[in-house]
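To: structure desk
From: M.T.
Subject: fold request, one chain
Message: Could you run this one when you get a chance? Sequence is below, nothing fancy, just the single chain.
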Amino acid sequence: MLGGVYVDDLIICGPNSQEIKKFKQQMMNLFSMSDLGLLSYYLGMEVQQKPGEITLCQSAYASKIVEQCGMKGCNPTDTPMEQRVKLVSGLKGTEMNVTMYRSIIGSLRYLVNTRSDIAYAVGLASRFMEAPTSEHWAAVKRIVRYISGTLDYGCKYVSGKNAGLKLLGYTDSDHGGDFVHRRSTTGMMFFLGPNLVTWNS
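Reply: Done. Structure tokens follow.
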């Protein structure tokens, strides 16, 4: 059995429903708490539970990001970033509001918790939080336009005999693709059966 705590919210999960029930009763005897039933919303994440299937999504949170950027009703794009785009620092361009840029990037980084499809684009845009220009802001706006058309995207986890426990990973890197510092960018995704369990860029 596992538990997760954030301030006064507690998530309890495990394979044995009777043990969970017993643990909840013990907690209620010790603390003043209420049982809200199956998890449906936690820290901006929407949780949908069906037999043999759990889906995590942040559609409401994603909608807030779109509104925060003043882009509600914008035309969505098919991809979060143009192919082969190379963002660099130190070029002349209209300076952006640093506080606004950092705020949006922070929100996007939290959205990556359920959206592996934007991990690379958000990671790239995150490199320029010190002195963002209009070119960097244009890249962020494209990510937001993509999100506006994919609000319901998330992670689906299935269980059962058909799910399997085979661990499969994918990784790639661009070897020195950063024009300024000559750093490499690496991306990786790992699946347990059909379920995406970890990713990074």
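Reply (cont.): The longest strand covers residues 167-173. Let me know if you need anything else for the meeting.
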